[in-house]
Amino acid sequence: MAAKDELGRAGEERAARHLQDRGYEILARNWRCSQGEIDIVAATSGWLCVVEVKTRSSAAFGHPLDAIDSRKLGRLWQLAYAWVAAHPERARGLGLRVEAIAIMGSDPASGEVEHLVDLA
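Structure (tokenized):
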């Protein structure tokens, strides 16, 4: 596995723990459909959350959240609706939102975590 893939996988693991520590229930990880992939699907306090995780070892190529532009955000919303369509029983009665978690540091297990709760 490439170092970049290992970094990303470790970042997603850290993000899932971060969410669980804050009371989120992880419903799915790396969910795929024809439109793409959702890193994490979670539920908390009446919300179904589609969470994009961005991990960087440094800011040399910009902040991790800079990678979520309007095009990427639109795609995340499409993926969120696709997940709801595929899992209506899990989504029933919940609001829907897109979130992002950025992890920066050479070791994702101890790197800095930034969590944006509602991307519009």
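The longest strand covers residues 47-56. Helices lie at 3-21, 70-86, 88-91.
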